[in-house]
Amino acid sequence: QVRLVESGGGLVQPGGSLRLSCAASGIMFSIYGLGWYRQAPGKQRELVAGITSGGVTNYADSVKGRFTISRDNVQAMVYLQMNSLKPEDTAVYYCNAKARWPYDYWGHGTQVTVSS
Q1: Does the pLDDT at position 101 exceed 90?
Q2: Cα(90)–Cα(104) distance, integer angstroms
Q3: Phi, psi of 44, deg, nearest 5
Q4: 31: left (phi over 0), alpha (psi -120 to 50) or beta
Q5: 48 vs 36: CA distance, rounded Å
Q6: Residue 24, SS3 per DSSP
Q7: What pLDDT does residue 55 have?
Q8: What's the angle, vertex CA 45, arms to CA 44 and CA 48, rounded to 5?
Q9: Residue 62: pLDDT above 90?
Q10: DSSP 8-state class, residue 56
Q11: Cα–Cα distance measured from residue 45 to residue 21, given in angstroms and rounded to the nearest whole number
């Protein structure tokens, strides 16, 4: 059974930091591309950051220079370090693991709220 479990969300003040974690099980983790997506109320889900099986990263323009995605293939974990958080970063954040179709899995999400 494939599971992706996010953790680390919460309430933080503008300018603060959070580190999201996603624990994967039931997949050959090292061959998967991984991503963090987010969905704010009334908006479509969007890609925040991705990392390939080879470690190449990409970021949404809105988070470049503030967020960092990383992976640990031994622990089957993917992380999102979020710094200089802004109120517009408020959303539910989802972990995604994707390999060749149809292998595409999602976690249930973790809420991040940036507010004073």
Answers
A1: no
A2: 25
A3: -80, 155
A4: alpha
A5: 6
A6: strand
A7: 95
A8: 130
A9: yes
A10: -
A11: 19
Per-chain mean pLDDT for the chain: 96
* Rounded percentage of the chain residues whose pLDDT exceeds 70: 100
Q: Which amino acid is at 116?
A: S
The CA dihedral of 48, 63, 21, 30, to the nearest 10 degrees, is 60
62 Cβ neighbours under 8 A, 6+ residues apart: 88
Quick: pLDDT tens for 26-39.
999 999 999 999 99
The neighbour count for residue 58, using CB atoms within 10 Å, is 13
20 CB contacts (<8 Å, ≥6 apart)?
A: 6, 7, 8, 9, 36, 79, 80, 82, 93, 95, 110, 112
Average pLDDT over residues 94-109: 94
Residues in the chain: 116
pLDDT > 90? residue 18? yes
The shares of helix, strand and coil residues in the chain, as percent rounded to the nearest 5, are: 5, 50, 45
**If we measure between CA atoms, which residue out of 22, 35, 20, 38 comes closest to residue 90?**
38
